[in-house]
């Protein structure tokens, strides 16, 4: 406030005169009155000037409160002191902090410097941040974190953007109405190793099924048994699908890994539409886990599932449930399911925010990390351009696991069934034929077909994992599946040494078994043959060539069985004694049905493998293995002939599938009806051979092992002077190998004995055939079903696999 000099002099002299003349209170009052009049006039004067220069309507702005902040103007007056800070504090008699407490008039353009802290322009601050180094990319995100998914929302279908529309930041919000959700087709997916996942999924399924409001009956599906994950997670089964996923977590290798891997691969696959799961009405995930034993990784796979489905465009309609099965159990699952059911009915629409375009800072990953689960690479904001970065982040968080660690359910399953796990991804088992031969009860079909003595045979796989899920494989549902190797890798030397130890330990256990022949028992401690076919896909093991070399160094022959899905590995495989390719079906559709392969281009891969057999690997003793499954792959002889024409194998081994117990619990859909009789197999083989000959291909039926429903078709190259030479001369094989010269299958064949020829049954002399009395086996000669027990038959099935 400024006073002009004349006014000041006038006031001061008036006060002085009145004071000396009148003295007393009247003078003081008059002085105050005059001073106020001057102040008011000065202030008014100044305002007029200001308004002329800046004709903006002044706004009232309350300044920061001090000790009087709680009091209103009127209350202050009532206190009688005029101000709580009446000068007592510093004795100044006026001014002090109270000067800042008043409501003052300020011009918007004259915000004093000291007021900055109170007038942050958030819009500007936000834009400044956004205008830093940014990429403009389309972006989708579920704005709501799992625990804030269903906020109270206005009852409207389209919610107008709340942010002012910026060029680079268009935010809109969609809602999903209860009507849409009730009309949806709900799919309850689950994964389960030990059963609780399945039980909980059934609770959720039953809860939803009990809702009369739903237009369609919910469906229950096992994720681990889906023929093709992409049928549901790239394509969707119908326009109005809503997914509920019940997902346990395992810190060991499990089928869920493959599911998650597929989601991630699809997200990173440029051929797939960026957000294929946008087509869903919505989705939600119920996680099961154990927070006590795995506090750090509690429900991590459920969170990952939620993450990838959101990234693929899915709209979360309910918060991710996280249930500790140890402490909360099914009660909490029921609670979650009931709440989900209520939400579906609730006519309060669910807000789902959706950014059409949004700037993403290059270091957005850190900014947008979600609910503290950063270690799992979970982020709420999904960005397209950031795919690679986030994917890297996610992949980094997935540490390399052991394929079958000691505490895994797979380990327990396998060991319970007589397998010995070697290291973390290999396994051995002595098959029932090995035991049989030790007791003089006959060898497996490889004895009659190729001269393999079962008592000296070690069945081994260096990869318990597989890239297919064949219907006749008993291990489906618990075995690790993957398209490629993604586990810790054991050295080949370690595997062989420990596999032999384990094999010998199992042989040793036979010493007290009645009927074991001493000679054979002694010889069994010098393994002469290795069947690389037990379970899984041996060729996936990265050091398979070195492993085979090590076998050969010990004069152990090698039969390598591949599933025709890894052409690169097949092309590079070194010399083996016999190289198998499983041909489980003659056409694309049938192969998909039987093998349930993980690769989308499974058929092309198989054809490529056949080409490799005909060309690069034509020096090897090659075998097509056909496993006949009634209702799946018997019949289309012409298409089988096409494949033979393409691969030109030395032999075609045709074997009826073996029954491996009921389909309950093991994911194997086969029943006894799918197991062909021997007669059916021989009929197939005869017709097949006729078709091959009709095409000018030189194949004939050569040998058999009727007991195990197995017949050998051989190229007539192995028929010399009208005599079959389908057996292997092992000594010659090693001689050739050690000579370092190139050699072919023609250099180590030997004559097939009379008893093994087709029509003679194939039961090796020197053994006593034992017939099992079983009501189910109506025709002992013709039925190949091995019903001794599931464990035994499993070995047979695995040979097929
Ligand atoms: C080998 C193994 C590993 C597990 N790892 C985890 C884990 O990392 N995080 C977690 O929350 N729960 C973990 N659990 C607990 C399971 O997720 C929980 O028991 C679940 O209910 C199992 O479902 P299931 O019975 O269908 O297999 C693990 C359980 C097992 C047996
Ligand atoms: S069935 Fe297989 S593992 Fe058993 S003896 Fe025959 S080849 Fe060896």
Automatic annotation (TrEMBL):
Residue ranges with Low complexity bias: 80-89
Domain Flavodoxin-like: 186-341
Assigned keywords, A-Z: 4Fe-4S, Iron, Iron-sulfur, Lyase, Metal-binding, Nucleotide-binding, S-adenosyl-L-methionine, tRNA processing
EC numbers for this chain: 4.1.3.44
GO MF terms, alphabetically ordered: 4 iron, 4 sulfur cluster binding; FMN binding; metal ion binding; S-adenosyl-L-methionine binding; tRNA-4-demethylwyosine synthase activity
Domain of life: Eukaryota
Biological or metabolic pathway of the protein: tRNA modification; wybutosine-tRNA(Phe) biosynthesis
Polar residues: bias regions: 392-409
Name of a matching Pfam family: Wyosine_form
BP GO terms, sorted: wybutosine biosynthetic process
Radical SAM core domain segment(s): 450-698
SUPFAM superfamilies, sorted: Flavoproteins, Radical SAM enzymes
Cofactor: [4Fe-4S] cluster
Reaction equation(s) it catalyzes: N(1)-methylguanosine(37) in tRNA(Phe) + pyruvate + S-adenosyl-L-methionine = 4-demethylwyosine(37) in tRNA(Phe) + 5'-deoxyadenosine + L-methionine + CO2 + H2O
Family the UniProt entry places it in: Belongs to the TYW1 family.
Protein name as catalogued: S-adenosyl-L-methionine-dependent tRNA 4-demethylwyosine synthase
Source organism of the structure: Naumovozyma castellii (Yeast)
């Amino acid at each position: 406030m400024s006073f002009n000099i004349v006014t000041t002099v006038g006031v001061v002299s008036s006060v002085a005169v009145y004071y000396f003349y009148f003295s007393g209170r009247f003078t003081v009052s008059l002085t105050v009155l005059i001073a106020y009049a001057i102040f008011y006039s000065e202030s008014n004067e100044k305002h007029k000037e200001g308004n002329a220069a800046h004709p903006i309507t002044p706004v009232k702005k309350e300044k920061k409160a001090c000790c009087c902040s709680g009091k209103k103007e009127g209350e202050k007056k009532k206190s009688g002191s005029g101000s709580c800070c009446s000068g007592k504090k510093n004795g100044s008699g006026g001014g002090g902090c109270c000067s800042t407490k008043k409501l003052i008039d300020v011009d918007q353009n004259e915000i004093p410097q000291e007021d900055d802290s109170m007038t942050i322009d958030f819009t500007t601050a936000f834009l400044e941040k956004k205008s830093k180094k940014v990429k403009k990319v389309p972006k989708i995100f579920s704005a709501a974190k799992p625990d804030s998914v269903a906020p109270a929302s206005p009852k409207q279908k389209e919610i107008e953007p709340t942010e002012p529309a910026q060029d680079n930041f268009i935010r809109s919000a969609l809602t999903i109405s209860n009507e849409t959700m009730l009309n949806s087709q709900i799919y309850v997916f689950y994964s389960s190793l030990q059963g609780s996942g399945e039980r909980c999924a059934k609770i959720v399924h039953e809860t939803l099924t009990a809702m009369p409001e739903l237009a369609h009956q919910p469906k229950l599906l096992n994720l681990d048994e889906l023929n093709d994950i992409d049928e549901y997670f790239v394509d969707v089964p119908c326009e109005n699908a809503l997914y509920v996923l019940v997902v346990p977590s395992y810190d060991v290798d499990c089928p869920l890994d493959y599911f998650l891997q597929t989601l991630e691969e699809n997200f990173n696959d440029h051929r797939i539409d960026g957000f294929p799961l946008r087509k869903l009405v919505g989705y939600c995930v119920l996680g099961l886990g154990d927070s006590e034993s795995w506090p750090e990784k509690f429900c991590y796979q459920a969170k990952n599932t939620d993450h990838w489905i959101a990234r693929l465009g899915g709209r979360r309609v309910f918060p991710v449930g996280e249930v500790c099965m140890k402490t909360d159990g099914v009660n909490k699952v029921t609670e979650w399911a009931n709440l989900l059911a209520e939400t579906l009915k609730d006519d309060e629409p669910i807000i789902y925010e959706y950014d059409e375009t949004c700037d993403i800072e290059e270091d957005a990953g850190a900014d947008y990390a979600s609910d503290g689960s950063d270690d799992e690479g979970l982020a709420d904001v999904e960005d397209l351009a950031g795919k690679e970065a986030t994917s890297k982040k996610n992949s980094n968080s997935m540490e390399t696991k052991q394929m079958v660690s000691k505490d895994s359910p797979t380990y327990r399953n396998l060991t319970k069934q007589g397998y010995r796990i070697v290291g973390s991804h290999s396994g051995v088992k002595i098959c029932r034929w090995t035991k049989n031969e030790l007791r003089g009860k006959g060898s497996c079909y490889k004895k009659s077909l190729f001269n393999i003595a079962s008592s000296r045979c070690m069945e081994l796989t260096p990869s318990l994992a597989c890239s297919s899920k064949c219907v006749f494989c008993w291990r489906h549902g618990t075995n690790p599946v993957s398209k490629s190797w993604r586990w810790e890798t054991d050295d080949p030397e370690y595997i062989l040494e420990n596999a032999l130890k384990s094999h010998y330990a199992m042989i040793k256990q036979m010493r007290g078994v009645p009927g074991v022949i001493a000679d054979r028992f002694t010889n069994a401690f010098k393994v002469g043959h290795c069947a690389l076919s037990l379970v899984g896909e041996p060729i996936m093991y990265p050091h398979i060539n070195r492993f085979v070399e090590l076998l050969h160094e010990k004069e152990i022959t090698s039969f390598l069985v591949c599933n025709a899905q890894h052409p690169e590995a097949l092309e590079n495989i070194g010399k083996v004694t016999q190289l198998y390719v499983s041909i489980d079906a003659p056409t694309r559709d049938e192969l998909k049905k039987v093998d349930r392969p993980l690769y989308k281009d499974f058929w092309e891969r198989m054809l490529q493998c056949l080409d490799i057999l005909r060309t690069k690997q034509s020096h090897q003793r090659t075998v097509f293995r056909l496993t006949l499954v009634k209702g799946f792959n018997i019949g289309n002889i012409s298409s089988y002939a096409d494949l033979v024409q393409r691969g030109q194998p030395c032999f075609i081994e045709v074997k009826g599938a073996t029954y491996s117990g009921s389909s309950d619990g093991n994911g194997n859909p086969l029943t006894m009806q799918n197991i062909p009789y021997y007669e059916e197999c021989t009929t197939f083989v005869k017709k097949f051979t006729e078709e091959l000959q009709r095409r000018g291909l030189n194949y004939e039926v050569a040998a058999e092992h009727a007991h195990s429903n197995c017949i050998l078709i051989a190229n007539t190259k192995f028929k010399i002077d009208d005599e079959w030479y389908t057996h292997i001369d092992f000594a010659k094989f090693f001689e050739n190998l050690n000579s370092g010269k190139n050699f072919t299958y023609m250099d180590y064949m030997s004559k097939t004995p009379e008893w093994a020829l087709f029509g003679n049954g194939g039961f090796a002399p020197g053994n006593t055939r034992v017939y099992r009395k079983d009501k189910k086996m109506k025709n002992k000669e013709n039925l190949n079903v091995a019903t001794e027990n599931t464990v035994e038959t499993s070995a047979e099935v695995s040979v097929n696999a």
